[in-house]
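ok new one. same drill as before - structure tokens go in, u give me an amino acid for every spot. 361 of them this time. try not to just spam alanines like last time pls lmao
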């Protein structure tokens, strides 16, 4: 699949050209006039998460749901009827009628289904984690690179409003604390809490670090399941950054918080609320920045500095919808998706290392 940049943009979809006509009378500000461009996306899996995907896919601009397929025939027919989309008779039929494929099935099936999508040359969106094991993820990534097929992994917290608020500033954390707590829910307990919940924060930590994991310490325990239901980890990176993470799926309350400690700033992200608070300190004698609230004077001898805070705000937007829009745009333009297969493989490797350390301990 390719995108050709001329006085018009051409997108090659299933062997046909779709055209965006560009008004170039004002070279400093192009105006795009869209013809009807429909990217045909097929959805595999219509369970709890897949149904949420489908709800967004049917209303995305320039997207047509080519069909849905699920191993449960009753669920497949029910969701196809509810959303008025075709129910494919099999996975091969769905892939064949699609320009790209969205996979929202149990993690244990990601590798097998993903390999079939890639073999057909279709761009792949796959829910997190990329695969059940690092070995499977590596195989999937190697096949995608050999075939020149895009993979986007559904690490949805990258699109959380709180995390998106960081895009407007330069952040270089030296220390990160992450807490992700959730009440018991039997959905997703086929894997350790590291792969179920903590993996969200592992992805964010990797995205914020300029180095690679160097030393890892982890502890965990199974309370309800035979796997790991509560886990804590300390990860030291080659760039000097340190991250402490805690995840539990048997908590009495919900919590999704990330705290970043930097040289002269502290940033608190409430991922559950989508809010991001920035706390900074001025240099000696400098005023508090416009739009910030002075909190406290920090006086030590002749030094006079001000502690201040302000909210960092990103545009509102449903995180799942935003990541599906990003996948659509990556397929249409040929650009690299915001969360690549390499990103998904890195976090899967780290999660697997944590589980191994816990089990060996």
């Amino acid at each position: 699949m390719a995108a050709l940049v001329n006085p018009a943009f051409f997108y090659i979809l299933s062997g046909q050209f779709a055209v965006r006509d560009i008004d170039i009378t004002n070279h400093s500000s192009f105006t795009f006039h869209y013809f009807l461009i429909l990217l045909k996306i097929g959805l595999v899996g219509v369970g709890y998460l897949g149904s949420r995907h489908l709800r967004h896919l049917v209303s995305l601009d320039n997207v047509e749901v080519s069909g849905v397929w699920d191993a449960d025939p009753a669920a497949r027919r029910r969701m196809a009827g509810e959303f008025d989309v075709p129910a494919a008779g099999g996975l091969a039929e769905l892939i064949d009628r699609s320009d790209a494929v969205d996979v929202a099935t149990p993690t244990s099936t990601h590798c097998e289904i993903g390999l079939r999508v890639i073999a057909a040359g279709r761009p792949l969106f796959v829910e997190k984690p990329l695969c059940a094991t690092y070995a499977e993820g590596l195989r999937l990534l190697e096949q995608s690179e050999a075939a020149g097929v895009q993979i986007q992994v559904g690490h949805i917290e990258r699109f959380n409003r709180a995390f998106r608020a960081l895009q407007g500033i330069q952040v270089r954390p030296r220390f990160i604390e992450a807490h992700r707590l959730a009440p018991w829910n039997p959905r997703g307990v086929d894997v350790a809490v590291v792969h179920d919940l903590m993996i969200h924060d592992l992805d964010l930590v990797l995205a914020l670090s300029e180095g690679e994991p160097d030393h890892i310490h982890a502890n965990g325990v199974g309370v309800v399941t035979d796997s790991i239901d509560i886990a804590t980890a300390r990860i030291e990176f080659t760039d000097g950054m340190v991250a402490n993470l805690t995840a539990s799926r048997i908590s009495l309350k919900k919590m999704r918080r990330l705290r970043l400690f930097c040289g002269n700033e502290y940033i608190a992200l409430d991922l559950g609320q989508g809010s991001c608070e920035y706390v900074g300190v001025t240099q000696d004698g400098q005023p508090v920045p416009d739009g910030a609230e002075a909190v406290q004077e920090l006086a030590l001898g002749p030094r006079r500095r001000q502690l201040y805070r302000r909210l960092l705000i990103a545009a509102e937007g449903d995180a799942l919808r935003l990541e599906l829009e990003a996948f659509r745009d990556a397929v249409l333009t040929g650009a690299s998706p915001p969360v690549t297969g390499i990103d998904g493989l890195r976090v899967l490797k780290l999660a697997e290392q944590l589980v191994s350390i816990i089990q060996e301990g």
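The two ends are 47 Å apart (CA to CA). and btw Confidence is low (pLDDT under 50) at residues 1-35.
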